[in-house]
Amino acid sequence: MSDFLKNGLARNYLAGRWVDGDNGASMPVEDPGLGEHLADAALAGDQSLAQALDSARATFERGDLADMNPHARSRLMMRVAAEIREIAKEGGDLLCRESGKSLEAAEDEFEEAAQYFEYYGGMADKIEGKSIPLGPDYADYTVYEPYGVSAQIVPWNFPVSIAARSLAPALAAGNSVVVKSPELDPIGIAMLGLALERADVPAGAVSILNGVGSDIGAKLVSSPKVDQIVFTGSVPTGQAILRAAAGPVIPSLMELGGKSAAIAFDDANLDTLMSSLQSGIFYNAGQVCSAMSRVLVHRSIYDQAVEQAAALADGLSVGHGLENPGLTPVISALQLSRVEEVTSTATQHGSRIAAGGSALDRNGYFMAATILADVDPGSRVAQEEIFGPVVCFTPFDTEDEAIAMANGTEFGLVAGVFTRDLARAHRTARKLRAGQVFVNEWFAGGISTPFGGVGKSGFGREKGLEALFNYVRTKNIAISLK
């Protein structure tokens, strides 16, 4: 760890080396569970970015990964997975402290990161083209080629897992990658550099830089040295990146926000619904793009569902992530202020606060687990992504009404259906405007299931076999034999 941490400073991983910030620049990192300074992180600038891009390009042009025997590339990915597991305990502790999430969730992120490398490592030698019949006078076939240099901007809510989610398929396909880590919690993701280094990933194939989004983030996505952009984050930032990418015409993969709804029909199992509610909106303090942020409940069971949800929210233990409580803090004072501000507008539009509703009076950045009942589906709180432990309950009478409300936002990331009627579940799932639909279990699925949205939730897919083909482009080769 000595190269990674130097004099209390978390350093950047630049083309196989651990480096300080440009001109010694650094930035503080807080512990949101205490509201106190935790550590400092090196701050990359123009010089580091230029070196990272040049090294990535040189590595790609040499074919260090792209021309590697696919079986060897697969074994390399498996070594990375093993090394990630070696740092999971120490990395989980740091990630817990800097992000505020529970220690269990932080360690799970490193395990999930390892699984991404295993999953795509198993595909590295299976990226196969196809032969196209054009008659006896031609031989025609396709090959898949890596893009080149992939620029990847990672959000703060699941930095280690999301970094691996994009990094693993990109490397499996033979790309080089420059990762821009989140400013609020850059330490855990930087530790992935340790695993890459120890697994002998070619120097230059990956750089992980912490820098200001409006500075090196903006310069990264507009650089003509970049061949692909992968972004996970907010809609406004995604729109800004797409505008920047339009000039050099850089292909982009966008995973943006959500305001996802679960529909609970009259035959829904309320215990199942409450279990999904606990993980769907209170896990990681609701700071999840695919959070279960709206619950539409048939009027016949609506009052009972709201009552049980309020009891669930009021009964959650609250504490620092190291305690593995039911509710952890949000990432920062600014985020807490935003969550509280948006929530406070709900009652002005007829909503009723069934539980929570405000910040908690304690050290750190804690928002009470909040249940808003009788929420107008057109109100701000039902339309905007809050990114906090706040869920909106709204009653419905008919199936068509529920589907219309669920589809009634600009987002379309995920959705959910709770019913014992299998035919209704299939029928409703087909009509929901979302990239993924959960039936009777929020967050059902895993690494092998494609993930991504429609509308302002973005485009392209991460996870699963489908994601791998976001990191290659098809070349057709037609040969006349005449």
Element layout with pairings:
Blueprint: E1 5-6, E2 9-10, E3 12-14, E4 17-19, E5 26-31, E6 36-42, H1 46-62, H2 70-86, H3 88-99, H4 103-121, E7 138-146, E8 149-153, H5 159-172, E9 176-181, H6 187-190, H7 192-198, E10 206-210, H8 213-221, E11 228-232, H9 235-246, E12 252-255, E13 260-264, H10 270-281, E14 292-298, H11 299-315, H12 333-344, E15 352-355, E16 370-373, H13 380-383, E17 390-396, H14 399-406, E18 414-418, H15 422-431, E19 436-439, E20 458-459, H16 464-468, E21 472-480
Parallel strand pairs: 2-6, 8-9, 8-11, 9-10, 11-12, 13-14, 13-18, 14-17, 16-17, 18-19
Antiparallel strand pairs: 1-2, 3-4, 5-6, 7-21, 12-20, 15-16
Helix pairs in contact: 2-4, 2-7, 3-4, 4-5, 10-11
Mean pLDDT across residues? 96
Name the CATH architecture of the largest domain. 3-Layer(aba) Sandwich
**Radius of gyration, whole Å:** 23 Å
The count of strands amounts to 21
Shape: globular
Q: Would you state the CATH class of the largest domain?
A: Alpha Beta
Q: How far apart, in Å, are the first and last alpha carbons?
A: 62 Å
Can you walk through the features of this model?
This protein has helices spanning 46-62, 70-86, 88-99, 103-121, 159-172, 187-190, 192-198, 213-221, 235-246, 270-281, 299-315, 333-344, 380-383, 399-406, 422-431, 464-468, and strands spanning 5-6, 9-10, 12-14, 17-19, 26-31, 36-42, 138-146, 149-153, 176-181, 206-210, 228-232, 252-255, 260-264, 292-298, 352-355, 370-373, 390-396, 414-418, 436-439, 458-459, 472-480. The model has no long low-confidence stretch (mean pLDDT 96). It has 482 residues and is α/β, with parallel strands linked by helices. It has a seven-stranded mixed β-sheet, sandwiched between helices. A six-stranded mixed β-sheet has the order 10-9-8-11-12-20, sandwiched between helices. It has a four-stranded mixed β-sheet with strand order 1-2-6-5, covered by helices on one side. The protein has two domains: 5-255, Aldehyde Dehydrogenase, Chain A, domain 1; 260-446, 3-Layer(aba) Sandwich (Aldehyde Dehydrogenase, Chain A, domain 2), CATH 3.40.309.
